[in-house]
Design brief:
Elements: H1 3-13, E1 28-31, E2 40-44, H2 49-57, E3 60-65, H3 82-92, E4 96-99, H4 102-106, H5 111-119, E5 122-126, E6 138-146, H6 147-157, E7 164-166, E8 172-178, H7 186-194, E9 199-202, H8 207-215, E10 219-222, H9 232-243, E11 249-251
Length: 263
Amino acid sequence: MVISDIIAFLEKKYPPELAADFDAERIGHVIGSGDIELANILLALDLTIDVANEAVARGANLIITHHPIIFTPLNKILYTTPKGKIIKRLCQHDLSVYVMHTNLDAAEGGVNDVLSVRLGLQNARIAGGCPVKDKLMRVGEIEPTTLGEFAKIVRARFELPAVKVVGEEKKVIRKVGIIGGSGATEETINQALVEGADCFVTGEIKLHIAQLASACDLALIDVGHGIERMVLPAVKDEIENGLGLTGRVFVSEINTDPLSYSF
């Protein structure tokens, strides 16, 4: 089995055409060669030098990441720079890199479906219909509870030390929208309102978006960007079960989020 066989399998499960327009050139097989015999696979949220070293240690020659390693064009590749060091290590060990970003967000069984299950949303569905590009939000119901109590549930389910909250603590929450990553825009705020959500869970919420939601009486819970990592075990299972690669697919143990909380 060669690397291109893995890519063909992934592209049926998580179609590249589901990627947002801005993302289309950043996903897919971005480094390496597809005709190399597969050794092992490492799944990671981001590709850092520590993740590259972990891949080498695990005997992997394919790294699958959620976040693109090349997000803006590279005019130079200098081995003394952080990104240059990663690319040098990849080339030294003939490592391929495959990226699934917004297509993994939108696809059935992808990031936002996994997060919906993790959060315990009932009757969860894709806001706006079937999976297409930019249809990222999932909406579902919970047992009615206050925003204060729901924030505690979110924090526990996503294994976070803290979350940021917009809204009155006693506001009753019945319906919830969720998008993993940085999902708060004017468009998604409006989408959550159209769907009748009482609360929208996402990450990296900007001040003007928080102000808009507050003015519209939509509660927000900011969970940061790292919870997308929770999709990786599901992708691992898909590859192992679909291609008979049990024991050859690994989820990275590297924490690529340098942010921490100080209390």
